[in-house]
Amino acid sequence: MTTTLEPPAPTPAPEASRQRARKRPRRRTQLSAHGEPFVWISGGALVLALAMVVGLFALVLGFGLGTFWPGPLEQITLEDGTSVLGELQREETVRLDGEEVDRRLIRVGNRDLTGVSFRWIDNADVAKVERPDWALVVERLSWGRFYGTPVSYQVQGEVVTEDPAEVWSAFLAEQGPARERLAEIRTLEEHEIGRVNARLERARLATRGAELRFGEDSDEARRAKMQELRIQEEGEASFAELGAKIAALRAKNAEQKVVFRTSDGVDVPMEVASIVRAYPANRLSFTGKVGVYLARWWEFLSADPRESNMEGGVFPAILGTVSMTLLMSILVVPFGVLAALYLREYAKQGIVVSTIRIVVNNLAGVPSIVFGVFGLGFFCYVVGGSIDRAFFPEALPDPTFGKRGLIWAALTLALLTLPVVIVATEEALAAVPSSMREGSLACGATKWQTIRRIVLPRAAPGIMTGMVLAIARGAGEVAPLMLVGAVKLAPSLPVDLTAPFVHPSRSFMHLGFHIFDLGFQSPDSEAAKPMIYTTTLLLIVIILALNSIAFWVRGRLRRKLQGVHV
Amino acid sequence: MRRSGNGTGRRKRRLETTKRVRLAERLATGLITAGGFGAVIAITLICAFLLAVALPLFRRAQASEPNEAPVAERAPRRVFPDEYGVLVAVLGQDWNLRVLAVESGQVLEEIEPFAGLSRPTAFSASVDGRSLAFGFEDGSVRTARIGFESSFPIADEVPAELVDVAGGRVVEFGNAIWQRTPEGKLRREALDFELGEPLQLDSASPVQRLSHLDDDGDQTFVVWTRDAGPLFVQAESTMNLFTGESETSLEERVLPYDRESDSAPPAQVLLTGTGREVLIVHGDGRAERIDARDPANATVAEVVDLTPEEGERLTSTTFLVGRSTLITGSDRGVIRAWFDAPREDGATPDGKALVEAHTMRGPNTPVVHLAASPRSRLIVATFGDGTVQAYHVTSESRLLELDATDIGSPFGARILPKEDHVLAFGSAGLKSWEVDFRSPEASFSSFFRPVWYETYPGPQHVWQSEGASDAFETKLGFVPLVYGTIKATFYSMLFGTPLALLAALFTSEFLDRRLRAPIKSSIEMMASLPSVVLGFLAGLVIAPFAQTALPAILAAIVTVPLALLLGAHLWQFLPTERRSAWSGWQRVVAMAAALPVGVLAAAWVGPGLERLFFAGSIELWLGGKGAHSIGAWGLLLLPVSVLLVTLVGGRGYAAFLARRGESWTRGRTARVDLLKLGVGLVATLGVAFGVGGLLEVSGFDPRGSLLDTYDPHNALLVGFVMGFAIIPIIYTLAEDALSSVPEHLRLASLGAGATPWQTAVRVVLPTATSGLFSAVMIGLGRAVGETMIVLMATGNTPIMEINPFSGFRTLSANIAVELPEAVQGSTHYRALFLAALVLFAMTFVLNTCAETVRIRFRKRSSRL
Fold first, then answer.
1. Does the residue B241 lie in any domain?
2. Is B618 on the interface with A (CB under 8 A)?
3. Contact residues for B861 (Cβ-Cβ < 8 A; gap 6+)
4. CB A155 within 8 A of CB A258
5. B767 and A47: CB-CB below 8 Å?
6. B785 in A contact zone (CB under 8 Å)
7. ipTM of predicted complex
8. pTM here?
9. Could you read off the pLDDT of A303-323 as tens digits, one per residue?
10. CATH classification for the domain delimited by A316-565, as one of 2.60.40.10, 1.10.3720.10, 2.40.50.140, 3.40.50.360
């Protein structure tokens, strides 16, 4: 490396300048030698990169936190006399045919009546903007938001009151019980009927299994068939009973109705039970707004999605992400730690081990989609298919494990994050001074005792870091999940309260996939935007929190170890 | 080792390890070794599995040992095999249908469809052989349906004689055939033939040639009658509401033809798949293509010679599935595929031309018979010497050569509907093979070389893997996907690499030590961002914004560096003491201030430039509006011009400074430097726009080649957003490489009088080169395989355009889009695995390269 050790090239010094130099003994460095412009360009690159980070987080944070805040409800009268009631989404200046036009996007809701939920309005067309006192924002179970003013409250078809304030208080009084009835209906529909269905399905599979095992005409098959028929009869009876219960609750709910009037003057009767949340946007105090804001966040975090995922919550996606990630880390951490222990403590250091190390590092750079392809082909089809043929032949051709599912997604991501754990653990192991190992061995401890009592405790922070980093990577990875397990809408949760509680063969929802699906496969991406922003914020918060935990744990354990040991 | 005593009088303690410890030791060793090998196995498993799935693509087709049976059938008009290769119906010379068992060749049933009717004079069959049409002496036509009905009778209905039929055996019973399926059920199969009502043509002249198309009951015929020549007949069925009977009305139109020269009936009349084009093929190989889009005014679009070689004779024709491609065979054993390709020069009235797109050469004996598979683009050709060959038309590859020389003079061969059997018919018998064509459409050349697909003007690289029907031609050209991957990688590296490397250089060499850690970790935070978030922001937030702010963004590429340069030159005016005192965070703050200045300048200048150079809107200009392209040329040439001016001007300026600037004061040098910046800027712009103007004057327009229409989800957007993903990676690794350059080298350089800048450029950078290289390689690997960003930020259309304002589809996005829909084990599925393997190999090579360089660099720098 002779070139690097060259002294900085001095400017050639001809005779004349040497004479001058004698006059001025202190030769100054030339300005250009400082390379100020180049330094600025490289500094600019750093600043730009930082600005990108900050800007990105600000964008996500701003959009994510802002979307649930209840804005005012504006009645806009246009120049042509028609009027529009809605929430202002944003304003922008666009150039249409070379002319600059200011326009605003209004969320006008009432998709069931008009077919659209958003409308662009040229600012030039706006004649008057008002904020009607009793304009309500109504979030419904279906068809998205509704905007209108309350006209009357009806009980069993008879008008009780027509005063907006009284309608409002009547609605508030009845909403709780109505929603409870609705929840009861849902429990009946999902849990009770689901339980009966599951029993029927089990009986059918038992018959099929007996037929496969003992032959179609065997006594066992006949007995199973009889049993199935009996269960079918029972099922019919419980269906009828449940149906009656549900119908009664429905009828009770149908009694309570609020009639709203849209800005077009159309009266719309609405069952109280079908209203998730309503508020008079322009009468809301600050605390009221905070209440709506928090209620929306709570719904977002705890409720099921509805309206093709564009409304409601993301609870199944959170649960899916968490359970998949946990399962993944249960799989990857022991395996990764064992592999690292082998590489660092057991294997003979040589060309083979360094090749393996290169391959492991390499694996970290293999595109995640390739893991997804492998996972789908190997885990889902080959491994899952074999399990199905061996253990669940009665359900075929419907696959039980031979399809996308939680366990395969977790395995795929475990493979994906394996290098992260191995590399982190290896580093941690390497950082344990060999004098400690030697000391332990010299005291007569076996190799495993040394590892367990001396090496592993000191390497624990590094291993923990590796684990959390792997979890963070796994939680944010979407491309392989699209192939091996994540779905738009899972019919049932991968973890629930029916035995065996964890259902590894079920497909699941995932926050990252949820973002992709909402943004690029939903029928109305504008209406889905609030949901995407909040989901994005949630995902980023989870991942950053995991990363911070990793660094915090590492720092803490390091300090603790430094304090205790030499 | 135990010793009884050691001379000290003390008995040594027993030094034996307990069993438990030993067991634990052995267990741990075993487990850990297993874990270690498990990791290695897991890694090799990925590679091996991808290979195992992808490799069968290239396996050759296979045929089993044939089954032969004597048949007393002379020259059948057409054979109709069933789905399972068990039965075959034969339309004999006497127009009777006979059902034969393939295994034994015995006649099971004979149907006389025309008993009591006059015999047909012409006949035509669809590609799948399920729909037939017959023409008669009295000028009428009848359609017919033929098929095999298979059923699984329940146990009670099975005849007693058949209950004990073993699996796989075929038994003839009654007029049906019975077979036990692998699932253990008995399957009954029988011929189902139904002759339609006669449709009387007005001309009432004998039908000599016939072709028909049955599109869900809408029937179209082309009929050659003895007296009226070619007729185009459309049959329309209407239901009579009162009687409930359906009535069929015919609409006949005479097609144009030259009565003088075509006094004899042609060899064939053919109706193509659209039902709007007719081919009249003559015995000498001449074919008239008649455009019948408007049947009332049909015209002869062109006359094509289907036997281009001298003295060649046409011996056989068939349509491929979809009836858009005509396959012809000649007496020299040449098989040609013809279809309509667009023709731009206007030589044909309908703007199309029948072209010979594929040529396959068999043995030099006449092609006796051609038959197409009803579900793909496979054909089997029977040659005069008795060989039967299977070809895939799109890839022109010969898949199988079967020997049917021992069944007398060959009549023909067919592929069964499931493509698992080939059945050959000769004068002395029939022969059937169980075949497995595997993936006929896949081959190295169909993946990586241009292929001429149906309706395309010429051979092209196309990826289009799924179509609505069997007639769809699968297009598996990887090149557009590889192109898209390279394009995405190129633009993201173009944006990300300089930014990341410069930022790393600044961080390690010029940044205040206290700022280093927080700044580094905040850029690393960017790496933890899930790419789905970046993709969503790119697609739904940045893309619409960039569309509205396009001129400002393009201007910012110039103004932001310019603002930084200006800031640096102004900074030079500071007195030396101040400058060295403020070289810490103060300078960073000043730089950060230059950034918004540049952005604001861009926002201010952009729209003006747009009005000046792009007729008011870049988007419309790219779409073709507006005349001159000086602005675009100027922008495109700017990087070259910057390089040129810096190299030439910079050297000259350095020489000038060395000569004259020696005695100048700091302030004067700074002033001259600032002047230099201005002059340089003017010179750069002058060169770029001057050359641009020259190009414009000489008639070059970048639109249509270098630039094209604007798509908001374009390569520049992907480049920018992917920057978020690769900058932190390159930055971290590059910074590590730079800071691992030993401190004593820096100190020595500084001590010898070099400035920090000189030290950075001449000492640190050269030492760290290999580390930087490996950082870039790893960034490259990430960019190649990134999926979610490209999936969400581009339109995912597999096009090959150099235009930075258009989208593309990458290998990874293609897998993500198509694999969930691909059928396991299909060619498409395997092709996607091959794509994954290509990605795997690309990144593996990149990463291994980077890793080896990095390890060598680490070793060397530790020795320094």
1. no
2. no
3. B740, B741, B742, B767, B768, B771
4. no
5. no
6. yes
7. 0.85
8. 0.86
9. 888 877 788 888 989 988 888
10. 1.10.3720.10
